[in-house]
Amino acid sequence: MMNVSLRTIARGLRLHVRDSGARVGGGRGPLPVSVTGQRWGTTVIRSARGEASRLPNVCDNNAASSSSITKLQFFRQFSTSSYTMADNFRIERDAFGEIKVEADKYWGAQTERSLTNFKINQPFDRMPPAIIKAFGILKRAAATVNMNHGLPGDIGKAIQQAADEVISLKLLPHFPLVVWQTGSGTQSNMNANEVISNRAIEILGGEMGSKKPVHPNDHVNMSASSNDTFPTVMHIAAVMEIEEKLLPSLKALLAVFQEKVKSFEKIIKIGRTHLQDATPLTLGQEFSGYATQLAYGVERIEATLPRLKLLAQGGTAVGTGLNTKKGFDVAVAAEVSKLTGIEFKTAPNKFEALAAHDAIVEASGALNTLACSLMKIANDIRYLGSGPRCGLGELSLPENEPGSSIMPGKVNPTQCEAMTMVCAQVMGNNTAITVAGSQGQFELNVFKPVLIKNLLHSITLLADGMTSFKDNCVVGIQANEDRIEKLLHESLMLVTCLNSKIGYDMASKVAKNAHKKGTTLKQSALELGALTSDEFDRLVRPELMIAPK
C-alpha cells in the first residue's frame, strides 16, 4: 500500500491521500495515486488503475482568487471524500507479519490478506448475512460453554456481547469477504474471530489489534477449527432460513391454492393432455393438482431438516475432536438450540459431518423438486390465461403493469415469468451444489462456501418468489366461465363417454367426421346413425364425466 503527497496543495499544505477503492473505480484497497498534471485551476490525480480525479488547485493564485474554496473548506472536503488521511490505519499482525488495516474496521490481518488474495467478484458475492448471523450464534454458544472449560469469565462475557452484535447484523459491514476463498471457509471463520476479538477488546477498554486481552484464536476460536465451525454455521443458517422464510412462504402459497380449489370446484372445463383436447374435469380438480404438489413440497423440505439440524461442532480438524473437552459438542448444540429456539443436536459422526455435505445436497434436491413444481404451476397458469382474445383465455390474471413499450394496452403474465426464472436459477444452483457436494476428499469437503451460498440463494429466491407470486398473481386469479363453457362444448373429446354405448371404433368415426366437416358431435352422431338425439343428450353430459360412476 503506497501513500503519496499532493505536492501542489496551497501554501505547502501536504495532504496524504489514498484511494479508498470502494468509492473510486469500484475496487477495494489502497492504491498508488500520482499527480499527472494541472489545468484550469485543478490538479489531475491518477490511481494505479488509471482512473483520474480532479482536485481544486488552490496553490494557483488565479484559481484561488476566483474560487470560494478556502484551505479549510478544501481540507474538509477531501478528508471526508474517497481520500482519507494516511494515519487512519492500525497495524495488525499474524504469522506472515504486519499489515495495515483501516482503523475503523474490526477485522484483522487474516481478513485483510483475504481481501487482497481473493479479489473475485467483490463485493457482489459477499458471504450471505445468514452465515454471518450463524457465526455470531455459534461463537456466543461456544463462549458460554468454554467458560466452563477455562475461558476467563470477563473475556467470555465480552465475547458474548460482541457476538450478540454480530447476530443482530450490527457489525455486518465488518464482514467483507466473498465466498470465493478457501474451500473450508477458514478466512470467514477468522473474519468472525477477528471481528469478535477486536470488538470484545474495545468493550474491555483495550487497544484494537493488540489481541489483548481477547485473542481471536485462543479465546474466540477456543475448542474449534474452521473445519467444524464452518459446516456448523452452514447448517444453522440453512435451518433458520428454511424455517423462518421458506416454509412460511410456501405454506402461505399452498393455502391460497387450497382456497382456489374450493372456489373453482363447480366449474367444469375441458382437460388437455399432450397439449391436445382431452376429457373434462373441474377447474377445482386442476388446481387441486397444484395444491398437492405444494403440499408435497412442504413434506419434502421438512423431511430434510433432521439431518440439517445435526451440527459438526466438536469435530475440530478431522473429526476426532482434538483440543476439545469431552461433552463440548453436546453442550454447544444445546446452547445453539437455546439461542435459536430450534432443536439442534450434535452430529453422531463428525467424520461424515466434515468430509461430506450430503444433507446440503439433499436439501437442495428438495428445493429443486419444489422449483420443478412451481415451474409447471406458473407455466400452466400463464398458458390458461393466454389471450385475451386469441389464446386459451380460461383464466383472468391480475393486471399489474403495462406489458409492452410498443403495443398499447398489452398486459403480460409478469409474475408467472418471474416465478419461472426463479425456478430456472434454483435448478442451476442445484447443479452447482450437486457438483460441489461430490467433492469431499478424505477428511474434508473443500467446497463449503459455494455449497451454502447456492443453497441460501435458492431458499431466498423461492421464499421471495412465492410470496410475490401469491400476492400479485394467485390471489387475484379469476375464472372466465363463459370462455370455459364455450371451449368445453366445442371439444370433440366429449365423445369418449360414448365408448361404452357405441364402441371405440364408432366413437372415433363420430369425432373424425365432426372435425372434418366442422359440425358438432351431436350432428355427426346423428348423421352416421350412431345414436338418436335423446340418447346423445342422455349420455354426453360433462358433469357425469368428472368422476368414476
Automatic annotation (TrEMBL):
EC number: 4.2.1.2
Gene Ontology molecular-function annotations: fumarate hydratase activity
Pfam families: FumaraseC_C, Lyase_1
Signal peptide: none
Domain Fumarate lyase N-terminal: from-to ranges: 97-428
UniProt entry tagged with the keyword Methyltransferase: no
Keyword annotations of the record: Lyase
InterPro entries attached to this UniProt entry: Fum_hydII, Fumarase/histidase_N, Fumarase_C_C, Fumarate_lyase_CS, Fumarate_lyase_fam, Fumarate_lyase_N, L-Aspartase-like
CDD domains, per the entry: Fumarase_classII (cd01362)
Domain Fumarase C C-terminal: 494-546
GO biological process annotation, one example: tricarboxylic acid cycle
GO cellular component entries: mitochondrion
Function: Catalyzes the reversible stereospecific interconversion of fumarate to L-malate. In mitochondrion, catalyzes the hydration of fumarate to L-malate in the tricarboxylic acid (TCA) cycle to facilitate a transition step in the production of energy in the form of NADH. In cytoplasm and nucleus, involved in DNA repair in response to DNA damage: following DNA double-strand breaks (DSBs), translocates from the cytosol to the nucleus and promotes DNA repair by catalyzing the dehydration of L-malate to fumarate.
Family: Belongs to the class-II fumarase/aspartase family. Fumarase subfamily.
Name used for this protein in its record: fumarate hydratase
Species for this entry: Tuber borchii (White truffle)
